[in-house]
């Protein structure tokens, strides 16, 4: 039997994914996501854009120092100071990569770079050579490749490969191309770049017209072997190609794509939950592969078919992507072994200390809830392990409200100095409690987004509140909170966003 071609997965959740408005992650969250990417077995982790800020630099460096089973890359413009910074950040990695880019479309060259094709080519070659003098693995991206003149792309790719680039990337930066057109472009590059066999062809697709995954798959057919993507498809504007969709399409349609990735698919759903939790970006219910409805069958004819044989309406199994089908799991009489076992099934392997503390929280929750679902467990683990440094923590709150009166909230918080309490009124219990918190932290914020959803079924379901707040300087922070009480979940989410803001300010000042 012929050996199937290996496709490399290049994950850019921590770089392009983080470019989604409101999706910034702090160092601890980035490390947690990077560890999950390592469990997924991705080939390359793009950990950030080192020159963007001191926080980005530290995060890339921390990922490079921590991750051992994937290449770690940092993005860099085609300028020496970006390349130096990227090199400093990734050099501790087992397999470091500098990813440098410059735009090649006339629109970008003229209006943005105020340059010429010749100057861009010269700069690209010089910067690839410079990066290559620092380390061996250098990726070059022709930004806006799909709106660039193909002959110019052939020329610049040939020149950067001659200069030492190991990977040439053909980004559809603005999500403009179509599957047929992208196939032609990649095929043209394979045929017209003489040294192409010395480099890997990478593709990086955006979803502005909803075709990012389709375009990526068309490129696979044309011979691309590095696929760039993000978890849940988060990324600049409408996002990037979603890893879970690309990988499952390849796995499910081997007749179309006789190739393989190294991805441990059972880690896809845990990765999706983690990224949603740390970015505050909800996954739509009908999202392919990882959405809540991806394996739900509502209508009679479908249910009948699935009962007779799952393959009637399921083209992949929920288990294959890490969605547990055993919905009713544990209760208050369950012990530590069963608990740990269930977490392992869900893809979580915790250190003893974290396990003990999550188990304690589980028992508290089991006293409040008759049935603990897998989603409850995931929420507990993620809340516990991902909890920010808590500058302010909720001690207690009392709300007085009704449909014909102004709500009054008394909120008591704990911080490093002790306990503090404030009272505030508002048009409803949530606004009243947020007002009390503003008084306690001595700041006011615009509440830009607030949502609440039940994460499991039943009257005693836990609610997950997501908030996005904006500080006076325009910066946005998201927060999430989970509780069986929706007001408590909302207060926790608001405090989570404030704690994130405080950590961010301190990181910057450090
Ligand atoms: C398609 C993509 O996703 S590209 C990555 C996008 N991501 C980001 O931009 C996030 C991080 N960015 C940042 O923090 C900042 O933009 C920085 C630190 C990179 C640069 O900040 P500033 O120096 O203030 O420049 P600013 O962002 O305003 O403008 C970009 C400059 O880089 C130039 N530039 C843009 N891309 C490139 C490139 N690939 N190579 C060389 N120069 C470039 C622009 O022409 C402009 O130059 P100018 O200052 O001489 O006019
Ligand atoms: C930096 C490049 C690869 C990019 O993100 C894009 O062009 O979309
Ligand atoms: Mg991009």
TrEMBL record:
<feature type="binding site">
    <location>
        <position position="240"/>
    </location>
    <ligand>
        <name>Mn(2+)</name>
    </ligand>
</feature>
<dbReference type="InterPro" id="IPR013785">
    <property type="entry name" value="Aldolase_TIM"/>
</dbReference>
<dbReference type="Pfam" id="PF00682">
    <property type="entry name" value="HMGL-like"/>
</dbReference>
<dbReference type="GO" id="GO:0003852">
    <property type="term" value="F:2-isopropylmalate synthase activity"/>
</dbReference>
<feature type="binding site">
    <location>
        <position position="204"/>
    </location>
    <ligand>
        <name>Mn(2+)</name>
    </ligand>
</feature>
<dbReference type="GO" id="GO:0005737">
    <property type="term" value="C:cytoplasm"/>
</dbReference>
<keyword id="KW-0100">Branched-chain amino acid biosynthesis</keyword>
<dbReference type="InterPro" id="IPR013709">
    <property type="entry name" value="2-isopropylmalate_synth_dimer"/>
</dbReference>
<dbReference type="InterPro" id="IPR002034">
    <property type="entry name" value="AIPM/Hcit_synth_CS"/>
</dbReference>
<comment type="pathway">
    <text>Amino-acid biosynthesis; L-leucine biosynthesis; L-leucine from 3-methyl-2-oxobutanoate: step 1/4.</text>
</comment>
<comment type="function">
    <text>Catalyzes the condensation of the acetyl group of acetyl-CoA with 3-methyl-2-oxobutanoate (2-ketoisovalerate) to form 3-carboxy-3-hydroxy-4-methylpentanoate (2-isopropylmalate).</text>
</comment>
<feature type="binding site">
    <location>
        <position position="206"/>
    </location>
    <ligand>
        <name>Mn(2+)</name>
    </ligand>
</feature>
<feature type="binding site">
    <location>
        <position position="16"/>
    </location>
    <ligand>
        <name>Mn(2+)</name>
    </ligand>
</feature>
<dbReference type="InterPro" id="IPR054691">
    <property type="entry name" value="LeuA/HCS_post-cat"/>
</dbReference>
<dbReference type="InterPro" id="IPR005671">
    <property type="entry name" value="LeuA_bact_synth"/>
</dbReference>
<dbReference type="GO" id="GO:0009098">
    <property type="term" value="P:L-leucine biosynthetic process"/>
</dbReference>
<dbReference type="GO" id="GO:0030145">
    <property type="term" value="F:manganese ion binding"/>
</dbReference>
<comment type="similarity">
    <text>Belongs to the alpha-IPM synthase/homocitrate synthase family. LeuA type 1 subfamily.</text>
</comment>
<keyword id="KW-0808">Transferase</keyword>
<protein>
    <recommendedName>
        <fullName>2-isopropylmalate synthase</fullName>
        <ecNumber>2.3.3.13</ecNumber>
    </recommendedName>
</protein>
<keyword id="KW-0963">Cytoplasm</keyword>
<dbReference type="InterPro" id="IPR050073">
    <property type="entry name" value="2-IPM_HCS-like"/>
</dbReference>
<keyword id="KW-0464">Manganese</keyword>
<feature type="domain" description="Pyruvate carboxyltransferase">
    <location>
        <begin position="7"/>
        <end position="269"/>
    </location>
</feature>
<dbReference type="InterPro" id="IPR000891">
    <property type="entry name" value="PYR_CT"/>
</dbReference>
<keyword id="KW-0479">Metal-binding</keyword>
<keyword id="KW-0028">Amino-acid biosynthesis</keyword>
<dbReference type="InterPro" id="IPR036230">
    <property type="entry name" value="LeuA_allosteric_dom_sf"/>
</dbReference>
<dbReference type="GO" id="GO:0003985">
    <property type="term" value="F:acetyl-CoA C-acetyltransferase activity"/>
</dbReference>
<keyword id="KW-0432">Leucine biosynthesis</keyword>
<dbReference type="Pfam" id="PF22617">
    <property type="entry name" value="HCS_D2"/>
</dbReference>
<feature type="region of interest" description="Regulatory domain">
    <location>
        <begin position="393"/>
        <end position="510"/>
    </location>
</feature>
<dbReference type="Pfam" id="PF08502">
    <property type="entry name" value="LeuA_dimer"/>
</dbReference>
<comment type="subunit">
    <text>Homodimer.</text>
</comment>
């Amino acid at each position: 039997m012929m050996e199937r071609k290996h496709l490399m997965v290049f994950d850019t959740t921590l770089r392009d994914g983080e470019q989604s408005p409101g999706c910034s992650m702090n160092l601890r969250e980035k490390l947690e996501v990077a560890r999950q990417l390592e469990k997924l077995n991705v080939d390359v982790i793009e950990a950030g854009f080192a020159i963007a800020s001191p926080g980005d630099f530290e995060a890339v460096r921390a990922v490079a120092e921590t991750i051992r089973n994937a290449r770690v890359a940092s993005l860099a413009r085609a300028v020496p100071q970006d390349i130096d910074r990227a090199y400093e950040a990734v050099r501790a990695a087992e397999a470091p990569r500098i990813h440098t880019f410059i735009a090649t479309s006339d629109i970008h060259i003229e209006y943005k770079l105020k340059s010429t094709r010749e100057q861009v080519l010269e700069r690209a070659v010089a910067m690839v050579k410079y990066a290559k003098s620092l380390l061996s693995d250098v990726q070059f991206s022709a930004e806006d490749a799909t709106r660039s003149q193909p002959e110019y792309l052939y020329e610049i790719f040939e020149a950067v490969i001659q200069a030492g680039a190991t990977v040439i990337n053909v980004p559809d930066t603005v999500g403009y191309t179509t599957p047929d057109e992208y196939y032609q472009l990649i095929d043209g590059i394979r045929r017209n770049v003489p040294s192409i066999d010395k480099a890997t062809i990478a593709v990086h697709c955006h979803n502005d017209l909803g075709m990012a995954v389709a375009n990526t798959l068309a490129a696979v057919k044309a011979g691309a072997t590095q696929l760039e993507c993000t978890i849940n498809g988060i990324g600049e504007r409408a996002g990037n190609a979603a890893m879970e969709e690309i990988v499952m399409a390849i796995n499910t349609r081997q007749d179309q794509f006789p190739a393989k990735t190294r991805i441990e698919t059972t880690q896809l759903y845990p990765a999706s939950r983690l990224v949603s939790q740390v970015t505050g970006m909800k996954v739509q219910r009908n999202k392919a592969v990882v959405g809540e409805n991806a394996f739900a069958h509502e209508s009679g004819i479908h249910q009948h078919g699935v009962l007779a044989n799952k393959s009637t309406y399921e083209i992949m199994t929920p288990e294959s992507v890490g969605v547990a089908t055993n919905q009713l799991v544990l209760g208050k009489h369950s012990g530590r072994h069963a608990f740990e076992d269930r977490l392992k099934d869900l893809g979580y392997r915790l250190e003893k200390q974290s396990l003990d503390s999550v188990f304690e929280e589980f028992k508290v929750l089991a006293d409040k809830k008759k049935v603990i679902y897998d989603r409850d467990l995931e929420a507990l683990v993620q809340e516990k392990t991902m909890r920010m440094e808590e500058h302010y923590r909720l001690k207690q709150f009392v709300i007085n409200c009704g449909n014909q009166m102004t709500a009054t909230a008394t909120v008591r918080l704990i911080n490093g100095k002790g306990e503090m309490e404030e009272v505030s009124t508002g048009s409803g219990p949530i606004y009243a409690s947020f007002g009390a918190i503003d008084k306690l932290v001595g700041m006011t914020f615009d509440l830009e987004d607030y949502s609440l959803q039940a994460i499991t079924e039943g009257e005693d379901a836990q609610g997950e509140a997501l908030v996005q707040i904006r500080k006076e300087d325009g910066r946005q922070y998201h927060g999430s909170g989970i509780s069986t009480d929706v007001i408590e979940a909302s207060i926790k989410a608001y405090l989570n966003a404030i704690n994130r803001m405080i950590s961010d300010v301190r990181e910057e000042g450090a």
